Each structure stands twice: as structure tokens, then as C-alpha cells.
Fold this sequence. Notes:
By secondary structure, this protein is α/β, with parallel strands linked by helices.
Amino acid sequence: MGRGWKRRSTALAIALASALAAYLLAQVHFFQLVQLKALDAQFVLRGRLPTSRIVLVTIDQKSMDTLPELRLFWHRYFAEAIRAAADGGAKVAALDVTFAIPVTKWEPDNDRILAEAVSTTAPVMPVVCAYVPSILDRQKDWPVPLNIIASALGLAAFANLTVDPDDFVRSQELIEAPAPGNDVPLARSMALRVAEKYLGSDAQLENGRLMLAGKPIPITPQRTIRINYAGPPGAYPRVSLSDFLETAHSGRQDEIRKWVEGKAVLIGPDDLEDRHATPFYTFFAGPRWNTAGVEIMAHALETLLDRRFLVPAPRFVRISLLLAFSILTVVITASLPVTPAILWFVALLVAGGISTHLLFRFGLLVPTVEIALGCFLALVAASIYRFLTAEKRGALFHNAIALFVGKQLARSLDAGEEISLSGSSQFVTILFSDIRGFTAFCEQKDPAMVVKLLNKYLADMVSIIVSHQGHVNKFIGDGILAVFSDVDGATQGDHPSRAVRCGQKMVSLPGQFRTGVGINSGPVVVGNVGSPDKMEYTVLGDTVNEASRLESLNKELKTQMVIGEATNVLLEEGIETVCLGAIPIRGKAEAMSVYT
């Protein structure tokens, strides 16, 4: 229970740390740019939205080829288009063309004609006229009648577009910042001013809150909105200026009315010099794939009129999603095998993208990159944690195997990386030990005390065996089966001598118990026996059986250690033994010489 709680707490801590790191990284400039691209993808995935209130009258290549004058002197054409739109029942018009200097010196009537067209149509169709703030400073020296009339009628608006750091147009500043103590009406963008005239209500900015027609506009502290683009270039119906004028000259009023009645008419250039990258930017590069400025204004206007605002999701929604996906990533990484974990992780990323896209369709912006960052950071952190805990568990199981069944098996498992029913033939020395009179001893003692004393005794015995480079194969009640073989770091073939020295130390250890030892050398089968469901690592063969029977002779021969003949002949010089004679051994046809 405690270990499970610890794992869950660690997983939660990893998820929280990953979510926090993702939130902070998302503020870095690089990831902010990536998020902008992710937002662009949302538009592409969503596709087009319906448009019905706006029509574009464009200064396109056909107009440039058809109308003979330089554009500097197109005042008459714009005046004709304005009057034709008003006669056709347009609700509001916008002239997205700026006039920096008067042209009276070259065309005496042009400035007057255009200014009169704007002023005379204002009662039935207000015409919002564009200006560039930097040009207004020159109006004292170069007064332009159109700019003067538009300003006087409240129809002037700045044409500046709001550009992101990557030169894409995704937002639009709506209104200038208020200056302290200045009662002059705040300058509006073209989109906001046209929306005001279309709705018949002026916007009010108070305490950072912008209201239009009694409803709030969710602006940023920089007084911008995110433009909800209705589609790629060409999303709005358009008519070439030359075709519009030709239709008006021909008296086809019904056709004009069909184009503009009840709509906002935006007149502006659609040439390669005034195109900008937008969220519907394609894989193709170049101005021809971008959106004209007048159409960008149409998208911003439609956003205001239809109130299709894109706003950041509430903070708790953003944080909840980030935490949820980070936690799910940690759970998947920590609990599943590698291949399923990868598949589920990919599915989780897809689910994150779908979630943010569905929220986008409802006008809520959740940073997709932030969620992806949270997932990736959680994946890395959880993988590191899993690797470290796996290493720790691996070391634990290695030590457990070495402790319970011996270091030799642990090494073989590390080398083979598999557990199977198998065995090998080896020449080893087997040592059996047993406590003399242990059954009678147990009858006189408390069981808890017996277990305590037995554990202490076995610990001492195992310590002696290990110090002589033997390994304990198993405990048999109060007895021990130990195996001595050629091991790394030992002289090859010295295992009989090591076993005898070990047995001598065991039987001479002072304590409450009297130990008997039987030692025999010979071939054995070492390996895993049992079934795939339950295995035991053991040693098998006559050598093992004879060692056990030799140990049992201690009681009959009044000795503490009995050594088989096969072991005795392999002992090193310096180990003195005494032959106890040829003793019949159960299971052997002939008597065996035994030693002590």
C-alpha cells in the first residue's frame, strides 16, 4: 500500500512538473511562433465559413489594364463606384485607398469630385475612408479635400494592419490608446469604423472594455482582436472595379443591386503589392498565394459583425487540459510496455489536437503546442523514472536471485537474458551440513526462540560458506546444501580443498548447536528443474546423494565431518585426513573409503 502510494505520488509530481515546465516554455519566443503556426493549422482544418454581408470591389489587374490613367488620378472612378454602390442599396462602403497629396495641380476637379461623392452619399451610405497616420502630419502643407471631409463627417479610419513577429496578419488593432485628459474621439481601424456604421452605433472604450451596439468586444490589452478568417484568398465575393463601372455605365442597375444591396462594399487594391500572409497560407510561397489587404479588412469586419470572436480559453480550462494530458502521458509511459505505450502516446497527441480544435470551433483558443510540450516532457521524465526504477528493480531481483538460489544462476540469467528449463554437467564438490540433535532441541524450546536461534546459526554457516567461495543451493530444514565449483578469482580445481576447509570451520564454530558435515566430489547436473510455472535451481546426481549419505554417517562414526574418497584424492597438500575405512553406502554396490 505504501509503495503504491509512493509511485502514484511520484507520477503526479512528474506530471505537475512537466505541466509547469510546458507552461513556462510556451512563453519562449520560439514556441510562441510554433504556437502561431499551430493556430494557422486550426483554420486550415476547419475550412471555410459562410459569408454574406460583404462584397469586394477590387482594383485588380483587369482594372489596371482597362482604366487608362495612373492610379494617382483615379478619383473620378472611385467617385463613380461610390455613387453606383449607394444607388444599388449598399448599407456602408469603405475606400481602402489613401490619398497623401492633392492632385489639383494636375487634375483640377478630381479632389472635389471624390470629396463630393463621399459627402453626398453619406446620408444613405456612409463611406469610410482610409488614411495612414504618418501622412496626416503633412495635411497642413498638403491638404486633401477627401481627408478633410472624411474627418469632419467621422468617416476617417486608419488602414494599418497588425502584423505578428513572423509577418503574418492574424490580429487587428481596433482603436487607438486613449491619451490622459484628451477628449478627442479615438481613431478607429477601418474594420471597426465600418462595423460601427453598419450597425448604426459607435463603439465605446472605458477602462479597457470596448462595447459595440451594447455588446462587449473581447479585446487584448493592446486593443486588438484575433481575426477569425472565413477562408483562404477569394473567400469573399468580388467584382473588378472595371466591371463594376462598366455595369454602372451600361445602366444595369439590377445587377449592381444584386451585388451590393444591404451589404458592406469594400473598395481596395487586389494586386501583388498589397498582399499578406494569413492563417490560410499555403505550402506555396509568394504574394499570389497571400490575401489582399482589403480582404483582410473584410475578415476582421465579418468577425465583428457576426461576433465570431476567438478568445483565450479560461485559465482553468487551459490548466486542466495541460494537467490531464500530462498525467495521462505519465500513466501510459509508466504502466505499459514500450510498443503499446508509443501507440497510446501518439493517440494521446492526436486526442490533444482534436480537443484543441473542437474548442477552436467554439471560439476558445487553447495552445496546442503547450499541451504537446507537456506530453513530451512528461514522456521524457516518466521514461527516465521508469528506467531508473527498472534498474533499481533489476538490481533488487538480481540480488534476490543471488541470495535465494545463488550468484551462479544470477550471472547465467544476466548472460542469457531468459529463464528456461535447462541444465549443464559440471564437476563440483558438494557439502551437506546438518545439526545433531536438532529435533530434540526443538521440543524443549519456544518455537519463536528456535527460529531466532536457527536463523542466527544459518547466517553464521552461510557466511563461512561464502567466505570460501561456495554458494548455498538450498536449506533443507536445519540442513544446508552448498556447492563448491570453479569460480572466477579462484584457483581452478581447488574446490575440494575449499569445501573441506569450509566444513572444518563450520564444525568447529562454537555455539549451542553441534554440526555434522558430509563432503563429496564428482559430476552433477546443475540447472532449472520443474515446470514453466514453478522452477527450482538445483544440483542432481549420485555425487549429491552420496554427500548426503556421508553426512548421515557422522552419527554412526562419532565424527563431525566425513569426506568421500573422490574428494580426498583431490585435496591439496597440508590438509591431513584420516581414513575411517571402507564403509557400505546405501545405493552403492561396493563399500566406499571415507575420511575425516
